[in-house]
Amino acid sequence: MLTIRRAEPADAQVIGAVFDAAVREGWKYLGELAARPMFPPEEWDDEVAKHAPPNALLVATNETNRVIGFVAVHPAEGEMYLLFVHPDHAGRGVARALLDAAHEVLRSAGCREVFLYTHEQNARAIAVYEAAGYRRDGTVRELEFRGVHQREPRLVKVLN
């Protein structure tokens, strides 16, 4: 059983743990950077706080009410900002359920389109997004993150 709900302040550290586990497993292309926590605990507290309405940070919980994934959206921009699922729960429809919930938040805010950026080497995430109807629009964002150069294609989806 999967439940999607808004994140609460008490979820912050578990959200951080889900992020760290997902990054260790899915971002091996970042080498040592992915092997250790990227953000201190207080940054996860801040992340939950800054996603108060109109923004949204949603969590997916399992049958024991444990957070197993999360997604963040910024309706003012039409951006999906974060989507992570704990690797122990990957491949079970959690990401798709989070995507659907994120799309509903955006639709409710009047968004007709959603966009996101993801690392060009993140093949699993790109496959999930493309299966959900996202398409690359040709835009690529380049940035430095903790000393690592990243190229992130922009993916876009029309919300019906």
From TrEMBL:
CDD domains: NAT_SF
Xref: Gene3D superfamilies: 3.40.630.30
Entries under InterPro entries matching the protein: Acyl_CoA_acyltransferase (IPR016181), Bact_Acetyltransf (IPR050832), GNAT_dom (IPR000182)
GO cellular component, one term: ribosome
Alphabetical list of SUPFAM superfamilies matching this protein: Acyl-CoA N-acyltransferases (Nat) (SSF55729)
Molecular function terms, GO-annotated: acyltransferase activity, transferring groups other than amino-acyl groups
Keywords: Acyltransferase, Ribonucleoprotein, Ribosomal protein, Transferase
KW Ribosomal protein (keyword) present: yes
Sequence ranges assigned to domain N-acetyltransferase in this UniProt record: 2-157
Taxonomy, superkingdom: Bacteria
Name of this protein: Ribosomal protein S18 acetylase RimI
UniProt organism field: Bradyrhizobium erythrophlei
